[in-house]
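Run log, item B.
One chain of 303 residues. Sequence copied directly from the ordering sheet:
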Amino acid sequence: MKAFAALSIAALSAAAAATAHAEGPSRLDKIRETGVITLGHPETSVPFAYLDGNQKPIGYTVEICQQVAQYVKEALKLPKLEVRYNPTTSATRIPLLANGTIDLECGNTTNKEDRHKFVSFAPTTFVAQVVVVARKDGGVDPNNLATFKGKSIAAQAGGQTFKLASQLNAQGNLGITIVPAKDTGETFLMVESGRVAGTMNDDGLAYGSVASSKDPAAFVIGTKGYELAPYGIMQPKDDPAFKKVVDGAVLDMIKNGKVAALYEKYFNSPIPPKQINLKYPMSDAFKRALANPTDSGDPKAYE
């Protein structure tokens, strides 16, 4: 497991100044010149990144990114840094990061090793388990995919859960139709309306969707984890100066307890706009990740 040492603001500032010039153009240069940092975010990924009653982005990962933006401001010694927001989906988040539209992606993106060809990740700030959600009256068992034979399961297009659902379906010759959806909100709506028998999603998102629904008691969340999924803030590839500042900020927040405090705020307390409470205690896998921070994309690093 790859471990990190937290950096102070002074060290981050020195690194930002020295490394950017030594290693060529960095996203730090653009931020310094424009005085703007743009955070990409999904809009329906409760509690990670979603819209409040005023249609403003909020959430667990959004707040972590907002704190990172303040570290960037101080590292660059900027008197002011404007934080802008840009919606993303599973299909658009990597292209928008690569083309410079967003500087960080602040949602629920799984750190997968095959994505390292295109992007980098900050140290892990959540460890999910992929589970299945279904209606209680649907005649299926979310812990047994064979019970979905001849039925449909929804998953986000372009996301890891869609790939996983497709792989498990093919491996088991289960005869399940995997239906693509735009985002978490749409996948759950398909289950709620009866269009599909279930949805495969990460457990944090599953608990958020069920708690936000009109009738939470109508749904069952599977307890079987089909895959571990470490989440990290996504950032540009091959930009060591920017990564050093972002990673140092996240590591400092892990070390000083801010990440754990934000977890309690969004997973074990009433959250806006509907004041729902997911009542979802921190998993042992995530506790291990906070005790030994890593940006590894290998699920075995979190076992």
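Observations after the first pass:
- The CA atoms of residues 25 and 192 lie 48 Å apart.
- Residues 60-75 form the longest helix (16 residues).
Flagged for discussion on Thursday.
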